[in-house]
């Protein structure tokens, strides 16, 4: 059996992986998307993964209203000790400029399905924190350390701070820098392990771009500046493997199979594509699917250092554990239909910064009703549900019923990265034609209505309109129908790179998520007009460029 990378396609960044008995668990960052605040998956074979309920399911557990795009939950760490699961996470309130205001929390649960304890605030020293449980009973926060001073590098090494295992109070007097990283800089994402009597520190460097990498350092103690970097090449990187299908590997965590078994490493990764008119190396490409999770096999050299099997660039197809693995049943793709007959399916649907509530809308009896509030450019009160792009090629469609009386009222189908980068097809109103269909795009806050005076008039007496988007890797289009049978393509071809990490990075410091497809209602006039949605379909299609084993 082979692990096919990425194992968690679409936006599933910064994996923290552990094993408890015969089950593996991965926790991923979700940034401003809610739920789940932190995304959890489980598997018994490292190949097939199923999503678990969110540990941070309401605003009592996590309040992100007003958080900037790509703020919110950064790099959660999942661990198991003392008969319970420990989850430590950062809520980042500022993403750009000299400061990274953040709050680090810890919550615990005896069962991975919950209930989870109310998060305890730890500190704000730095992001990408993890929890290390030493074999002498002591517990430590291990974290990137932020320095706002303009005459210093902002990534000020890896700090280790002891916490009281009973009260969870932080002991700041114990804090010390245990590792400064290398000249690559931007050392972050630390995970600490004790293996064969020595401490091993895994840390990311180079930023989560093409130069991203993971390095390993070790020490016999936890003293300040005592860790020595693994000699030779980085533990994992794709900086010098531009032709690899998997790119950007780095930030991640180590796990072993049952006793006497093997070792694996779960890493964030990306799968860029480039236009035919562009170089394959500069720029290396665009990644609308965001940062995904891949798993590589690890072996140990004669000096006791971990090495990636197949070289530091990793492999697309990796040997799964040959023994002790229990086959896990899981979906073969992420195609999805929702007829909205019950509560919102929060394993597929996400909302921005706040959970789905009656203020936003309701589901049931075959329909989703969304109450229009702020525009899609807001970071506060947005009525939208959205799901990750998890394939390069897919169709998504929905039936919409909406009766606007102002151009300030809009409802429809969106492809969305963040409040500055999105597009959509929607029903609205204008002075000349009444109810119309428009397609618009927000490109780095430059908003363009493509149809303008040629907006498509909705025939009088039409009760509902069907919308569909066709995403075909590099480009995507929108279509509409007045009967759900005969479709008409809007003559607007949109470049998917505008919904990619790399494109957003060119103008904004928060570029850590990925593209979503969603349903949205806007009424910034403040009259709370409501749109009704029925029968959403997301159908994945094959990628002819996908490598074969």
Question: What are the main properties of this structure?
Answer:
mainly beta; 44% strand; seven-stranded antiparallel beta sheet
Structure notes:
The protein has 549 residues and is an all-beta fold. Helices cover 1% and strands 44% of the residues. Strands 25, 27, 28, 30, 36, 37, 38, 39 and 41 form a 9-stranded antiparallel sheet that branches. Strands 29, 31, 32, 33, 34, 35 and 40 form a 7-stranded antiparallel sheet that branches. A hairpin with a 2-residue loop joins strand 15 and strand 16. The longest helix has 5 residues, at 501-505. The radius of gyration is 24 Å and the shape is globular. The model has no long low-confidence stretch (mean pLDDT 96).
């Amino acid at each position: 059996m082979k692990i096919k990378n990425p194992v968690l396609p679409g936006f599933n960044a910064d994996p923290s992986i552990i094993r408890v008995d015969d089950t593996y668990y991965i926790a991923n960052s979700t940034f401003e998307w809610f739920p789940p605040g932190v995304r959890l998956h489980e598997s018994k074979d490292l190949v097939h993964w199923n999503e678990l309920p969110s540990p941070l399911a309401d605003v009592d557990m996590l309040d992100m209203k007003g958080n900037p795009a790509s703020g919110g939950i950064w790099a959660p760490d999942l661990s198991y000790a003392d008969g319970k699961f420990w989850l430590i996470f950062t809520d980042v309130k500022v993403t750009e400029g000299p400061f990274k205001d953040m709050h680090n929390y810890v919550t615990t649960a005896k069962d991975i399905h919950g209930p989870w304890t109310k998060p305890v605030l730890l500190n704000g020293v730095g992001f990408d924190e993890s929890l290390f449980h030493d074999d002498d009973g002591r517990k430590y926060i291990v974290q990137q350390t932020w320095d706002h001073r303009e005459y210093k590098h902002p990534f000020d090494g890896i700090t280790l701070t002891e916490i009281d295992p009973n009260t969870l109070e932080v002991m700041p007097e114990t804090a010390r820098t245990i590792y400064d990283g290398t000249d690559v800089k931007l050392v972050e994402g630390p995970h600490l392990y004790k293996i064969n009597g020595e401490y091993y520190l895994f840390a990311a460097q180079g930023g989560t771009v093409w130069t991203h990498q993971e390095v390993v350092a070790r020490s016999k103690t936890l003293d300040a500046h005592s860790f020595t970097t693994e000699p030779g090449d980085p533990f994992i990187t794709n900086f010098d493997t531009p032709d690899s299908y998997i790119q950007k590997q780095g930030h991640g965590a180590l796990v072993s199979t049952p006793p006497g078994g093997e070792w694996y490493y779960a890493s964030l990764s990306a799968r860029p594509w480039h236009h035919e008119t562009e170089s394959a190396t500069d720029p290396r490409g665009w990644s609308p699917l965001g940062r995904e999770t891949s798993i590589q096999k690890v072996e140990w050299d004669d000096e006791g250092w971990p090495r990636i099997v197949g070289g530091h660039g990793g492999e697309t197809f990796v040997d799964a554990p040959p023994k002790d693995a229990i086959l896990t049943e899981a979906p073969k793709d992420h195609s999805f239909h929702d007829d909205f007959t019950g509560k919102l399916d929060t394993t597929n649907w996400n909302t921005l910064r706040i959970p789905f509530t009656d203020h936003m809308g309701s589901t049931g009896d075959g329909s989703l009703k969304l109450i229009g509030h702020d525009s899609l450019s807001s970071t506060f009160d947005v009525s939208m549900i959205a799901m990750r792009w998890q394939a390069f090629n897919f169709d998504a469609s929905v039936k919409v019923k909406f009766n606007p009386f102002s151009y300030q009222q809009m409802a429809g189908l969106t492809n969305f990265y963040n409040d500055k980068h999105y597009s959509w097809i929607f029903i609205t109103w204008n002075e000349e034609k009444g109810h119309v269909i428009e397609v618009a795009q927000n490109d780095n806050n430059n908003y363009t209505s493509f149809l303008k005076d040629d907006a498509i008039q909705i025939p009088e007496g039409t009760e509902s309109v069907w919308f569909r988007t066709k995403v075909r890797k590099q480009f995507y289009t929108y279509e509409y129908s007045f009967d759900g049978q005969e479709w008409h393509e809007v003559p607007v071809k949109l470049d998917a790179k505008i919904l990619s990490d790399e494109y957003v990075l060119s103008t904004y410091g928060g570029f850590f998520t990925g593209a979503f497809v969603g349903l949205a209602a806007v009424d910034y006039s403040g009259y709370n007009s409501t749109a009704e949605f029925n029968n959403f379909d997301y159908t994945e299609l094959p990628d002819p460029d996908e490598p074969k084993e």
